[in-house]
Amino acid sequence: MDFSLDPADEAFRDEVRQFLREKLPADIAERSRRGYHPLLADVQAWTRIVYDHGWPGPNWPAEWGGCGWTHLRQFIFEEECALAGAPQLDVASFRMFGPLIMTFGSDALKNRYRDPILRGETCWGQGFSEPNAGSDLGALTTRAVREGDEYVINGRKIWTTNAHVANVLCVLARTNPESRRGFSMIIVDPKAPGVTIRPIIDIGEGHSLNETIFEDVRTPVDNLIGEEGQGWHYAKSLLDNERASSAEIPANKFNLMKLRQMAQRKRGDGTRLIDDPGFAARLARLEIDLQALEFLTLRALTEKAGGTRLPVGSLLKVRGSELFQKTGEMQLEALGDYVSYAYPPPEQSPHGIAAWPPGPAFAPGVVADFMYRRATTIYGGANEVQRQIIARSFLEL
Amino acid sequence: MSSSDAEEALCQIRDQVARLQHRYATPERLKALLDQTVGFDRALWQAAVEQGQPAIAVPEHAGGMGMGWPGLAALMEEVGKAVVSLPLIATPVVAEALLASDDEAPAARYLAPLVSGELIACVAFAEPGQTSPLQRPELACSGDTLNGSKAAAAFAAVADLALVHADADGASQLMLVPLDQPGVTRRTQPGLDNARAHAALQFRDAKAYPLLRGDAAIGKIMARVALATAFEQIGGASACLACARGYALERKAFGQPIGRFQAIKHKLVDMYWRIEIARGCALDALDALEGGNPLWPALAAAARLAAIEAYDFAARENIQTHGAMGVTWEAMPHHYYRRARCLALELGSTQAWREYLLAEAGFDAAAA
């Protein structure tokens, strides 16, 4: 298989680089280089800049109003963005709910959400998991009962990322109590009466997760995505998309680049961590993992473009999330005693770096990222469950 | 003391400490400690002092209970299990250094209040930018005067005395510094685990007591700290295993407790063997230290390496076993995760301890 770029793709890469040099705001780049959770405002502002440049929906096909780029060009775009420190375009909008609506939704829903998504104006809360239905999503109990032109929703969702700032919620609810997987995907206004959103503070003391409670919440039946009872099927295809992007090659690449820089820095006694054979061997191991993961992704993209569809979401998710955690652990080690310091998150300190301690410029965010990254092997379906999926669907065990 | 008497005394220590911690190591109190820059539970420390915990490992002729490092090991394992943070290792370490020093003045002044728990000590060896506290220090010492700095050290924010090593004309010199003096500045900053009460120290013509001289003596002090810390790490790792096991039995998915799934069973088994290997190494080192085996520092280094591996792994996989619940502030697993990383880094990286082990075991890394 040939992964070398032809001259037109090389020229495209140069064009993306030039765009980033000219248009990526320095403060946004600086904040996202720090490994903190990206600010919603930054993500939205950046999406708008990309849109205004004439690149609406870099990963969307032309018939949806997107750029219509090849998978390879999408990959180049994302990689260059990550290396330059641009925030990732919202996964929920561009990879999950947007594609779902554009594929299965009614014309009314397509018209309602297409342009706002492309302009970076939507923020989606994914109401799938429940206290007793996480990796085992089939156990969910939230009900949606049809009454005239409305659904009445009752239930409790948990780990709803961004629900507190979302302008649209998408709820997976049981519409047919008889059928084991009689679920439907329904859009709900987070401000609707009966919706209660409670914060869940995460391991790094950040707030992106929520508990979302629905008590007799009414939503028009027009807000049903696709067909009633097909929610399970939609959720599966959407989670597969989430998993494929959770290999996060661009972000993994950026992280490893950062680790390399940290290890090359001269320390107090003039030595460098990279000169330590033990450390260098472990770093090399991660570089090999990244290369393998990148080629796996490219292969999957090429084959997808050719019409066959490898169900590689689980594979990419497992390898990508584990690589992310290992890189974070080594970054923490490379930070040495500076790890005893946390740095204020960017929204608390406009200039990012506290006046003291005078740690290296790459120190801020490393600890926060180290804490938060524990979630990567859990969200989108725990890695244990992904391994089961691989065993069942790839190996037929 | 006969061996069965000693065993009974150790059991008593464990029971006493466990009871104390049941009262103080509540999730609310532990979380409150993480929420402040310098998290130190004075009430728990006071209760520990009333039980005589700082005196446990100190020799009887110095006013202690004379239970030595086996006593300290039992104590630290309980401390680790409850994921509380108490400055109990530095006290016997400083006491040893005071007793070994030729100068009797500092012992006369500080030994009794340290053993009684009236004063708190800390060990501050790491320096800014260094990855190993076993490296030659840059902190300069001229007679009894110190100039330079030490990187953030556990309990330095609340300690009265710091044990540091400094460079005295090319030789390493162990010094005891009273921290409450104009020449000492402490700097605190929120960090990965605020319950460690970290502070970085700066010395400008600070007055200190010279105690011992030479790299070997200082290496052995680090090895003692490492050995006691290994027991704290083993205690923490065991608590992670117990916590993960409890959750695996209680949490249901796909119609059964998740502990019934092989993926979870194997995870718990992998925690278990790492902990037992670490415990084996640590007990071996303890035995060698007690028996006067000159290889004990190498064995202590091995115990540290195994304990780091066990605690890191157990803390990580405990979070994973808890699923999304494990990445919440509310749940307990992140306390262990923070502590595991801090204990792994505070005394220098695994790389530094591998080198120390090789050197102590008689392998010259440079010649190999």
UniProtKB/TrEMBL annotation, chain A:
Domain Acyl-CoA dehydrogenase/oxidase N-terminal span(s) in chain numbering: 8-121
GO molecular function: flavin adenine dinucleotide binding; oxidoreductase activity, acting on the CH-CH group of donors
Protein name (record): Acyl-CoA dehydrogenase
Organism of provenance: Fulvimonas soli
InterPro entries: Acyl-CoA_Oxase/DH_mid-dom, Acyl-CoA_Oxase/DH_mid-dom_sf, AcylCo_DH-like_C, AcylCo_DH/oxidase_C, AcylCoA_DH/ox_N, AcylCoA_DH/ox_N_sf, AcylCoA_DH/oxidase_NM_dom_sf, Mycobact_Acyl-CoA_DH
PANTHER family in the record: ACYL-COA DEHYDROGENASE, ACYL-COA DEHYDROGENASE FADE29
Similarity annotation: Belongs to the acyl-CoA dehydrogenase family.
Residues annotated as domain Acyl-CoA dehydrogenase/oxidase C-terminal: 229-394
Cofactors demanded by this protein: FAD
Record-level GO cellular component terms: plasma membrane
Residues of the Acyl-CoA oxidase/dehydrogenase middle domain: 127-217
One protein family per Pfam: Acyl-CoA_dh_1
Alphabetized UniProt keyword annotations: FAD, Flavoprotein, Oxidoreductase
Highest rank taxon of the organism: Bacteria
TrEMBL record, chain B:
Cofactor(s) of this protein: FAD
Pfam families cross-referenced by the UniProt entry: Acyl-CoA_dh_1, Acyl-CoA_dh_N
InterPro entries: Acyl-CoA_Oxase/DH_mid-dom_sf (IPR046373), AcylCo_DH-like_C (IPR036250), AcylCo_DH/oxidase_C (IPR009075), AcylCoA_DH/ox_N (IPR013786), AcylCoA_DH/ox_N_sf (IPR037069), AcylCoA_DH/oxidase_NM_dom_sf (IPR009100)
UniProt domain Acyl-CoA dehydrogenase/oxidase C-terminal: residue ranges: 222-355
UniProt domain Acyl-CoA dehydrogenase/oxidase N-terminal: residue ranges: 12-118
One GO MF term: flavin adenine dinucleotide binding
Keyword vocabulary terms for this entry: FAD, Flavoprotein, Oxidoreductase
Family note: Belongs to the acyl-CoA dehydrogenase family.
Protein name in UniProt: Alkylation response protein AidB-like acyl-CoA dehydrogenase
